[in-house]
Write a structure and sequence with these properties.
The chain is α+β, with helices and mostly antiparallel strands. It has one domain (27-116): Electron Transport, Fmn-binding Protein, Chain A (Pnp Oxidase, Chain A), CATH 2.30.110.10. It has helices spanning 3-10, 30-43, 87-94; strands at 51-57, 63-74, 77-80, 97-104, 109-116. The protein has a five-stranded antiparallel sheet. A hairpin with a 5-residue loop joins strand 1 (51-57) and strand 2 (63-74). The radius of gyration is 17 Å and the shape is globular.
């Protein structure tokens, strides 16, 4: 086993107490739950909790990912901005679907959102 592989295996993951989640007590809409968790991430000291990984696929089907900043969340969806001429903009024009991933290590939570993009 390589030294790097062993080092990676030895890193402790999700130290401390993990938050509990009971879907039966979750808010009625995904955006309400997301907002709760986002505010908790802020209270937990997460730096840039509005930073997210935007994953798309180009016309050739190859995936690509980039970190962007969330601009808003509402019943209409998760809003972000990207230049239409950028790789992301062209990918979304070719295939208008994406996945967003938020990771808040201090809260021991991650959120994944996926679907069509308009």
């Amino acid at each position: 086993m390589t030294e790097l592989r062993q080092l990676l295996r030895d890193i402790e993951v999700f130290q401390g107490e993990l938050p509990e989640f009971d879907p039966r007590t979750a808010p009625d809409t995904p955006e309400e739950l997301f907002t709760e968790w986002l505010l908790h991430a802020l209270d937990s000291g997460v730096r840039e909790p509005h930073a997210m990984t935007l994953s798309t696929a180009g016309a050739d089907g190859n995936p690509t990912a980039r970190t962007l900043i969330l601009k808003n969340v509402s019943a209409q969806g998760w809003q972000f901005a990207s230049d239409a001429g950028s790789v992301k903009g062209r990918n979304l024009a070719d295939r208008p679907f994406a996945a967003l991933t938020f990771y808040w290590p201090q809260s021991a939570r991650q959120v994944r959102v996926r679907g069509p993009v308009v």
